[in-house]
Specification:
24% of the residues lie in helices and 29% in strands. The strands form two sheets. A five-stranded antiparallel sheet has the order 1-2-3-6-7, sandwiched between helices. It is built from four helices and seven strands, in the order H-H-E-E-E-E-E-E-E-H-H. The chain has a single domain, classed as Peptide Deformylase, CATH 3.90.45. It is globular, with a radius of gyration of 16 Å. The two termini are 22 Å apart. By secondary structure, it is an alpha+beta fold. The structure holds zinc ion. The site of zinc ion has 6 residues, from helix 3. This is Peptide deformylase. GO terms for molecular function: metal ion binding; peptide deformylase activity.
């Protein structure tokens, strides 16, 4: 997910102040796949091999996300169709940083949901922003890079980020959640189209 909204809140400083020892340090920056590439529309495969290759993939994903100034990135956004996402999402409670393998998203029951409508952007739809309504709370169950079960819980902007990245792994994009008209005008304003 793109970062504009949270960047304005100034929770994190400039790119240069990023710690040298954090995730992505050993990663290679890879190009971010853009809308129109079929890999973004294909549901990603479950990870079955929790080895050094998966660790390197996560490093590359962190490096690519930071280079693109994002706060979340799914593996298919660098062309790898596997169910993995990384995030570094600054919120008022602090910085949420991590990686989830084979995530399963859990949202509150429809009757208990509080929807928040906020601006959302995506590194794979460069320059596009739109208000998207999403539940204000989300839980993701999945695994870490060693295959240990983990649960990640988010509210507000971080909940949005978790949902955005899980959508990617199912072949979804935030523009799918826009009314037809809004989606059309957003794509037109970016000179983009999707068949
Ligand atoms: Zn995205």
């Amino acid at each position: 997910m793109s970062e504009r909204t949270v960047k304005q809140s100034g929770e994190r400083g400039e790119q240069e102040t990023r710690p040298q020892a954090g995730p992505g340090r050993r990663g290679t920056v890879r190009p971010i796949v853009q809308l129109g590439d079929p890999v973004l529309r294909k549901p990603c495969a479950e990870v079955t091999d929790f080895g050094p290759e998966l660790e390197q993939l996560a490093e590359d994903m962190f490096a690519s996300m930071y280079a693109a100034n994002g706060c979340g990135l799914a593996a298919n956004q660098i062309g790898v169709s596997l169910r993995v996402f990384v995030y570094d999402c600054p919120t008022e409670e602090g910085d949420h940083v991590g990686v989830v393998v084979n995530p399963r998203l859990e949202l509150p029951d429809v009757a208990d949901r509080v929807l928040l409508e906020e601006e959302e952007g995506c590194l794979s739809i460069k320059g596009g922003w739109a208000r998207v309504a999403r539940p204000s709370y989300a839980v993701v169950h999945g695994f870490d890079l060693r295959g240990e079960p983990i649960t990640v819980e988010g509210t507000g902007y971080f909940a949005r980020c978790l949902q955005h990245e899980c959508d990617h792994l199912d072949g979804g994009l935030y523009i799918d959640r826009l009314p037809a008209r809004a989606r059309k005008s957003l794509l037109r304003s970016l000179n983009l189209q999707e068949g």
